[in-house]
Amino acid sequence: MELQEKIDELRRRAQATPAIGEPAIRNRLLEEVRRLFQDLAKLPKEQKGEFGKRLNALKAEVEELSTRAAGERQVAEVRFEDTLPGTPRELGRRHPIYRAWDEIARVFLKLGFEVEYGPEIETEENNFQSLNIPLEHPSRDAFDTFYVRAPHLLRSHTSPVQIRAMRRRRPPFRIIAPGKVFRPDDADASHLPSFHQVEGLMVGEDVSFAQLKGVLLLFAREMFGPDTRVRFRPSFFPFTEPSAEVDISCFLCGAKGCPACKGSGWMEILGSGMVHPKVFEAVGYDPEKVTGFAFGMGVERICMLRHNVRDIRWFVENNFRFLRQF
Ligand SMILES: [Zn+2]
Asked: Domain 96-323 belongs to what topology?
């Protein structure tokens, strides 16, 4: 074989040897280069200079290939260092409001209620008229409602879902309607322009206030503990008659009085009442034949009471130090 062929063959082999970075392999290849230098002596005088350069270049290339491969191997070893601890990744979790929503829904599902959803953009009719909210009622004011383009608005409560459900169904039935609602309130410790409600409705031939009390007592005990007591205070809502605010005995102090219950021993959790006859008329039911009860609660409020959260804004600030606690 001519010297040039030997040089080319050795170069190809060096380039095709990934393990060239290992000292034993590198030394063997360099030994072969050294042997080619012996061939140099046999060449005619005028070729010696030129082939000397080529052999030196080959030697330099083998060394360079070897150094580079060794470096890459070191990098690779670092890259696959399996004793290094991994980068911890935090798993996400459900937002406390949606956890509270689920817990509320679970209680009513056990009592045979079905879940109904409705659109967040509603008609004025479903949000007000059908619920017996008269034109002069302050909540009808454009400053108290987000109007999209009249007669459409962002629903100010989930009660329109009751209207939709009653128009579509025939009594008897019982539903809950969880969802997002909107009010043009400035955000402060107890207000947000968007929050969540769960409404309940039970309609049938002999639905009574006693059943309303029974259902809400069961709910309060499931959510706030088996010793919880409930108290009904007369109130007014346009869509129920009679109407009542419902309080629970303070579960933090055992109704003795503490800062959370403002010393009263009671905490307000929701509004309720018997469905107003005019609401039944609006959906085509005969109020002489059908009775029903309805209630509505704020999910944020329930969640704040259960976990003693003092500012509603904390739910929407995306502060992980707060959210991680749930
Ligand atoms: Zn208390």
From this structure: BirA Bifunctional Protein; domain 2 (3.30.930)
